[in-house]
Specification:
- By secondary structure, the protein is mainly beta.
- The protein has a domain of about 170 residues.
- Helices cover about 5% and strands about 45% of the residues.
- The protein is built from two helices and 32 strands.
């Protein structure tokens, strides 16, 4: 979740990128990129997430064929290698970053277990505390106060939903009555978490833990079956999908009242602080599903490029800037972004033949991802950033 803005940080990042001699490969209305890999002078890199404060996390390698390491770029584009554990069986990948510059990840250990990690902005790593008897842990979500939501258990299937405070101390959240294999999905800046558990027939039921850790059942609207929750915002609105693969979407208000969202073949993914819901729906004129958003319960299809057949959304900011991918005809999949009005725009990429990957966008409209860049030593993947403007 991204709820803290920092306009000055974005300006610094963009100014540094242009001063470093980055040449945008733009054409027409394509949005130019900044080469974070070139700025930080690493051979290979990729950007996975960006916070509203301008922190970027990803992976990088200092030499051709060298090992990838977890990486944090600060608001000025400076790179910090995130420390790893000496007894790890793999290199951990950061999965999220917050406005404090903290990142989370999960790593397998040489003893066969898993550990949940949190890094600070300086690259120092904290191994998050394990409950008694738990050898398998995972960090699933991170809020802007440094609180982490995850799972813990004595086997790889896990079995407890846990929450770590800013000091890394663990709290096991209460079990869900009548359900097994509980799991946590997301946590907001107030410490409210969402997740669910399985009944004896293996149906998933949605639950919410309040800031005190007390569980509350979220009842779907009448006539709607069990739902899998996907996201919540700081205002207390929660969204979820009904049916495997998404055949209907539901939004719950802060009082726990659920409403079915309009549309066919609906799947919901995210809700931002404006209450805009991002997802997909089926349209008969396309014969398939494509990217949509709901504002105040109204469904809007996001525009397709001129030769687009369908699209899917990946991430959205709190001011409704959305990133995704579009499938063109003849078949080619390319990154695209939509402005607040739902109009579609192209990304410039370093390679004319290999499309970029775009993974996340923040409240200032800074999107991050990666693309293939030709250098004197060969062609390498570089972390990229784009400033999205209408």
């Amino acid at each position: 979740m991204r709820s803290i803005a920092s306009n000055g940080a974005v300006v610094v990042l963009l100014t540094l990128g242009m001063a470093a001699g980055v040449t945008p490969a733009s054409a027409g209305q394509q949005t130019p990129y900044l080469d974070l890999g070139k700025i930080s002078e690493v051979v290979s890199s990729e950007a996975l997430d960006v916070s509203n404060a301008g922190f970027v996390v990803g992976m990088s390698s200092a030499g051709p064929g060298g090992a990838y390491v977890p990486t944090n770029w600060d608001r000025a584009g400076r790179l910090t290698v995130l420390k790893t554990l000496p007894d790890s069986a793999e290199v951990p990948r950061p999965s999220a970053v917050n406005d404090l510059g903290q990142a989370i990840g999960t790593v397998s250990q040489a003893d066969g277990g898993r550990r949940a990690l949190r890094w600070n902005r300086d690259g120092e790593v904290t191994v998050l505390e394990a409950p008694p008897g738990a050898a398998f842990l995972g960090a699933n979500a991170l809020n802007n106060r440094g609180v982490v939501l995850g799972g813990a258990g004595s086997n790889p299937l896990v079995g407890q939903v846990v929450r770590w405070d800013r000091a890394g101390k663990v709290t096991v959240l209460p079990e869900l009555p009548g359900l097994r294999w509980p799991f946590g999905i997301a946590i907001n800046d107030h410490g409210i978490a969402i997740g669910g558990g399985y009944d004896p027939q293996d149906y998933i039921h949605p639950w919410l833990w309040d800031r005190a850790g007390v569980p509350h059942k979220l009842d779907p609207p009448p006539g709607v079956g069990p739902a899998l929750l996907t996201d919540l915002n700081d205002r207390g609105h929660v969204i979820g999908n009904v049916g495997a693969g998404g055949i209907g979407g539901v939004v719950w208000d802060p009082a726990g009242h659920g409403t079915v969202l309009p549309g066919q073949g609906v799947s919901v993914a995210q809700i931002n602080e404006r209450g805009t819901i991002l997802g997909s729906a089926y349209f008969e004129d396309l014969g398939t599903t494509t990217a949509v958003r709901w504002r105040d319960g109204r469904l809007t299809r996001l525009a397709l490029p001129p030769t687009g057949r369908l699209a899917y959304a990946i991430d959205q900011s709190d001011n409704d800037i959305t990133i995704g991918r579009a499938v063109l005809s003849p078949y080619r999949e390319v990154p695209v972004w939509w402005d607040r009005d739902g109009e579609v725009h192209d990304f410039a990429c370093p390679s004319a033949t290999i499309p970029c990957t775009v993974n996340a966008v923040n409240a200032q409209g800074i999107a991050v991802g990666s693309g293939m860049v030709e250098t004197g030593a060969g062609t390498f993947q570089h972390a990229l950033a784009w400033r999205l403007r209408r």
